[in-house]
Amino acid sequence: MAASASISKSIYFGTYVHSKSLTELEIRPDGVIGVDEKGVIQFLETNVKDVESLKSRREEWKDAKVVKIKGEGFFFPGFIDTHTHAPQHPNTGLFGKTTLLDWLQTYTFPMESSLGSLSKAQRVYSNFVSRTLSHGTTACAYYATIHVLSTNLLADICLKRGQRALVGRVCMNSNLSPEYYRDMSIESSIADSRASIDYIRSIDPSGEIVLPIITPRFAPSCTAHCLTALGDLATETGAHIQTHISENTSECELVKKLFPDSKSYTDVYETHHLLRPKTILAHAVHLSAEERALIKAREAKISHCPASNTALTSGCCPVRTLLDEGITVGLGTDVSGGFSPSILEEVRQAIWVSRFRAMNHGDVHKLSTSEALYLATRGGAAVIGMEDKVGGFEIGKEFDAQMISLGTVAEEGNMEGKFTEGSIDLFGFEKWAEKVEKWVYGGDDRNTVAVWVRGRLVHSTSKFEG
Ligand SMILES: O=c1[nH]c(=O)c2nc[nH]c2[nH]1
């Protein structure tokens, strides 16, 4: 559904769940979250049995709208997708047995080049933004294509639908990119990037919902001079930067050949002034200890894309090592290397991949459910530079949230009419932590019945009674 136009002071009534820290998931039964007309959280309470007595205690909230969880469910912070490719959405699930470099040529570049058509871009981008919202993604770092107009259209759609987004026009000028899909010169690469940055800033001058992001595709797609010019553009505009790093071993070898004077893949970005606190590096599977230390020193961020890394057989990212070394990490769906637009799916995939690492490198590598949920929310918020605004429920934070509704099992076990409610079955014995675990391992978009960004309803299903 379309986002509602205005918001009213609202009280969200029901259990809420969020990460307190990397390892601690806080569950607040019978919670109340008071959100003002600007979408900012003004108060939180817990163990509230009846909202009328709360309203009588809080005089200024007596006319507030009440949004109550019906049945079994909870409020959870909106998910943050720190890396995805909107134009690749039609290819979701299509990758065969390819690996990164042949996958790009076989599937990705042909599809991306076709998004120069604005009518196709309209269809694909509207669909993708709806999809990501329906999975509870309230903020997303998007790659678009090399085309300025369709990149701008993606930003228009995000703004209209109310999804926070960083939207990047892809830069790729090297002759390793196909002739049919390439920036024709450094000048045009920079001019087109600048045009898109200016446009995105013009439609949302406050930057509350959409922001531009400078997007060199990855080192092999850009000449050294182009990377330098993009580094300069980042200095001039102060915009965020996103790119790929060290995803696949053949790609790493290619970077060595193309940039023989650089000490490492990370050093290529460092040399061209692209390694900064506002830089999001996707994948980071095969980094050396020196590279990780440089990323940490520059305060650049990492987007972990486990589904994609497995689908394209790129490798198992050593997330525990990244976290232990103090690097900021979030999750990315990386559609269509990744096969799902859902960050909940990435939570599961991050946990599975960590277990595969644990099988070879020890149990310490296992991520817990709480840790993966942290990466999906607070970790992601820090990756996109919004940790002061979103990622958890606290006074002063903006209300970016999803209402999760869980199923129940009738006494006689009858499932008639229940299949549309999702695949989680609650039998009544589950404690809150177990309900959350059942959602993480068995939930999907059928359980996400409503989604808000800054207190504005941006998605709901027929099961939501708002
Ligand atoms: O997963 C990926 N998706 C892409 O589109 C891409 N381009 C360069 N490197 C990439 N990796």
Automatic annotation (TrEMBL):
Tell me the cofactor note: Binds 1 zinc ion per subunit.
Per its Swiss-Prot or TrEMBL entry, what cofactor is needed? Zn(2+)
Could you state one GO cellular component term attached to this entry?
A: cytosol
The cross-references to InterPro entries, in alphabetical order and at most eight, read:
Amidohydro-rel (IPR006680), Guanine_deaminase (IPR014311), Metal-dep_hydrolase_composite (IPR011059), Metal_Hydrolase (IPR032466), Metallo-dep_hydrolases (IPR051607)
Domain Amidohydrolase-related as annotated: residue spans: 76-458
- State whether keyword Cell wall biogenesis/degradation applies: no
SUPFAM superfamilies, A to Z: Composite domain of metallo-dependent hydrolases (SSF51338), Metallo-dependent hydrolases (SSF51556)
Pathway recorded for this protein: Purine metabolism; guanine degradation; xanthine from guanine: step 1/1
Provide the alphabetized UniProt keywords.
Hydrolase, Metal-binding, Zinc
**Enzyme nomenclature, EC number:** 3.5.4.3
The Gene Ontology biological process annotation of the record reads: guanine catabolic process
Taxonomy, superkingdom: Eukaryota
Reaction catalysed?
guanine + H2O + H(+) = xanthine + NH4(+)
Q: Reply yes or no: does the keyword Metal-binding apply.
A: yes
Q: Name one GO molecular function term.
A: guanine deaminase activity
Q: Which top-level enzyme class is recorded in the Swiss-Prot or TrEMBL entry? A: hydrolase
Regions that span the bilayer:
none
The function of this protein is: Catalyzes the hydrolytic deamination of guanine, producing xanthine and ammonia.
Q: Which protein family is it in?
A: Belongs to the metallo-dependent hydrolases superfamily. ATZ/TRZ family.
Q: What is this protein called?
A: Guanine deaminase
